[in-house]
Design a protein that fits this description.
TIM Barrel; 14 helices; alpha/beta
Length: 346
């Protein structure tokens, strides 16, 4: 099977010859470290949210990493812009980027909120060049369904106040983002992307950023309507403890959920309860790839392959992305363990 075939089969819970490995992001630093040469796999992003690197160059650079690691996917940014002050590293030293949202009132929304045309010729041309160089890899178009961009553009404090004072402001911002994604995705599907991967963080380690009832009433109906028109498989992402939101989240009809953060979510419990409905992606703990040993990583990968991989519907991945602070030897240990233990146990 080709890498693309493995990913698509796993999303359908079909038999594969080997469990595939995909990642949402691979940092340029860790890519260069494991490849032994300067690699630019993550393009900088223009103010409109689109990659600044030529599509063919971006694909070729990502394929260098895939050939060395055995990773199955290529990633293309198709995010709408967010409206916040310049993103910076979190004060606690974590790799999370934070920025203060700029749209706190209806006046801010009316004054600032402008999105690029979904038919932007530069964006479409870049996407076509990217796809022309995908070969047998699974090409993933990275989008946001709406709620993630809304939270980033408002900031959590303004969002929290608006949930009480003016929930329709949240709805207006969210629906504008969702409508934009609804217009962009058909173009990406027509160009030839294989998977739509939606990145919308809505949970802390302690649990969701808002009540499940608020999500069901104000967010989910619109996102269900948008996702229902996708013709390619959908993977949805959120960090944090999504357990209280899982029943509602899965109403989106996605084929897979990512990344099942292992320090706050029990992937084995999720597999038992939801594994027949949705494929699972992820769960190799980022912190372990930073701080543990290659032997520890091998044991963790083996456990996921032999337990979560049993019966199909599993794609291995880190618990978010491959970051520049990870030990190259641990990433290579992950590669070697996937090759060693990754034969499907359908």
């Amino acid at each position: 099977m080709t890498p693309r075939e493995r990913v698509l089969a796993a999303l359908r819970h079909e038999e594969v010859d080997a469990i595939p490995w995909i990642e949402g992001i691979v940092g340029n630093g860790i890519a260069s470290a494991v490849c032994g040469e300067p690699i630019t796999v993550e393009s900088s992003v223009a103010p409109d949210g689109f990659p600044t690197m030529a599509g063919d160059t971006l694909a070729e650079e990502q394929k260098k990493v895939n050939r060395l690691l055995g990773k199955a996917n290529l990633q293309f940014s198709a995010f709408a812009p967010i409206f916040c002050r310049r993103m910076k590293k979190a004060d606690d030293g974590s790799p999370v980027l934070v920025g203060d949202g700029l749209i706190k009132t209806r006046e801010d929304f009316e004054r600032l909120f402008r999105l690029p045309s979904p038919s932007d010729t530069g964006f479409i041309s870049t996407a076509r060049k990217f796809i022309a160089h995908k070969e047998d890899y699974c090409a993933c178009a990275c989008v946001r369904l709406g709620i993630g961009a809304t939270l980033l553009s408002m900031g959590l404090e303004a969002f929290s106040y608006a949930m009480v004072d003016d929930p329709q402001l949240i709805v207006a911002i969210h629906d504008a983002y969702a409508d934009w994604t609804a217009a962009v995705v058909p173009r990406l599907e027509e160009i030839g992307f294989d998977v739509i991967w939606a990145f919308d963080d809505v949970a802390f380690n302690s649990g969701p950023m808002f009540r499940p009832a608020f999500y069901r009433q104000h967010i989910l109906p619109k996102e269900k309507a948008v996702a229902s028109n996708f013709t390619k498989p959908l993977i949805t992402h959120s960090d944090g403890n999504m357990t209280p939101l899982l029943d509602a989240w899965l109403e989106l009809g996605q084929q897979a959920i990512h990344p099942l953060q292992p320090d706050v979510m029990d992937i084995h419990a999720v597999k038992r309860q939801y594994g027949q409905r949705v494929a699972l992606v992820g769960n190799i703990f980022m912190s372990h790839l930073v701080n543990k040993t290659p032997a520890d990583i091998e044991a963790e990968v083996r456990d996921r392959m032999e337990t979560i991989g049993a019966g199909g519907g599993y794609i291995i991945s880190s618990s978010n992305s491959l970051t520049d602070d990870m030990k190259p030897e641990n990433v290579l240990a992950m590669r070697d363990a996937i090759r060693k233990y990754g034969k499907s146990r359908k």
